[in-house]
């Protein structure tokens, strides 16, 4: 029960906060959308290696 509550809280927070951790994947013949859990990172120009 505790695990289900934590998962529900995480999903609720993901859907209500501006930062997204849950990405919807659709198209290319998929019969229904799938979801991927992840984060994105943005580097500033000074952090890029040339």
Specify the helix fraction band. 25-40%
Q: Going across the major beta sheet, what is the strand order?
A: 1-2
Tally of strands: 2
Number of helices: 1
Distance between the termini: 50 Å
- Overall, the morphology is flat
Low-confidence stretches: none
Overall mean pLDDT stands at 77
Label the structural class. alpha+beta
Largest sheet: number of strands, sense, barrel closure:
2 strands, antiparallel
Can you walk me through this structure?
With 50 residues, the chain is an alpha+beta fold. The chain is built from 1 helix and 2 strands, in the order H-E-E. A two-stranded antiparallel sheet has the order 1-2. Strand 1 and strand 2 (34-37) form a beta hairpin. The termini are far apart. 0% of the residues are buried.
SSE layout and pairing:
Layout lengths: L1 H15 L5 E4 L8 E4 L13
Antiparallel strand pairs: 1-2
Can I get a quick summary?
By secondary structure, the chain is of the alpha+beta class. Helices cover 30% and strands 16% of the residues.
Short key terms for the protein model shown above:
50 residues, alpha+beta, two-stranded antiparallel sheet, 1 helix, 2 strands, flat
């Amino acid at each position: 029960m505790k695990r289900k509550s934590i998962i529900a809280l995480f999903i609720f927070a993901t859907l209500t906060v501006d930062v997204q951790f849950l990405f919807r994947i659709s198209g290319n013949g998929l019969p229904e959308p799938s979801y991927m859990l992840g984060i994105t990172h943005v580097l500033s120009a000074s952090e890029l290696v040339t």
